[in-house]
User: Which sequence fits this backbone?
């Protein structure tokens, strides 16, 4: 009876920390959406909201890490439970870094506004890549909530689309800079924005890899897609 009670308590603690991860993920998603809006509308007000939210994201990461350390010390979990706790730590780290990228986008937006070159740059064309990256992060959180390895694999495949958008945008941006040297400074800011969007997709991909690790017990980092699909089945 005592063992069952302890097991029930442990399950409750796991559920609680997982809920905190989803809350943190929701906050980072909001950061990214606001950063994308700031970019599309060149809104300094929206950009400022993103930077202000960053402090809360950082605090949540520290709180979750402390909770994880406490659970591991008290429960000494093994097998899948330990994999889940390790995975949560990795997921929160990737969420925090995705939030960092959203904040970088916001700072670059403010820099572009200050340069006075905002309206002549193709910032709107980044919206596709930004929506893809934001969607992948949302999907990675859904996959975590369900511990769905198949959904995680689909995220790994979709990340390639963001990379293609990034490559195409870089080529277009180089053309802008060659045609008008006055846009070089702001164009470089926009290049950093594009890179941040690509990295948000990478963090969603990292989370997907962690989910496969939890569910299947296999580290699929640096594996081919064929090998990953063989693991997931």
Assistant:
């Amino acid at each position: 009876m005592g063992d069952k009670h302890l097991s029930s308590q442990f399950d409750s603690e796991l559920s609680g920390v997982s809920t905190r991860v989803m809350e943190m993920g929701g906050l980072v998603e909001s950061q990214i959406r606001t950063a994308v809006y700031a970019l599309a509308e060149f809104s300094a007000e929206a950009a400022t909201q993103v930077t202000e939210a960053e402090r809360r994201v950082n605090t949540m990461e520290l709180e979750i890490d402390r909770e994880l350390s406490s659970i591991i010390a008290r429960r000494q979990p093994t097998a899948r439970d330990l994999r889940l706790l390790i995975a949560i730590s990795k997921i929160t780290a990737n969420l925090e870094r995705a939030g960092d990228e959203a904040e970088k986008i916001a700072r670059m937006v403010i820099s572009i506004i200050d340069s006075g070159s905002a309206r002549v740059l193709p910032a709107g064309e980044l919206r596709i890549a930004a929506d893809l990256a934001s969607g992948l992060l949302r999907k990675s959180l859904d996959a975590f909530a369900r511990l769905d390895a198949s959904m995680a694999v689909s995220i790994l495949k979709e990340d390639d689309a963001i990379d293609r958008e990034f490559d195409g945008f870089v080529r277009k941006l180089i053309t802008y800079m060659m045609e008008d040297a006055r846009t070089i400074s702001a164009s470089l800011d926009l290049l950093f924005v594009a890179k941040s969007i690509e990295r948000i997709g990478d963090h969603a991909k990292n989370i997907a890899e962690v989910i496969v690790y939890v569910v299947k017990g296999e580290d699929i980092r640096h594996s081919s897609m064929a090998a990953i699909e063989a693991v997931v089945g």
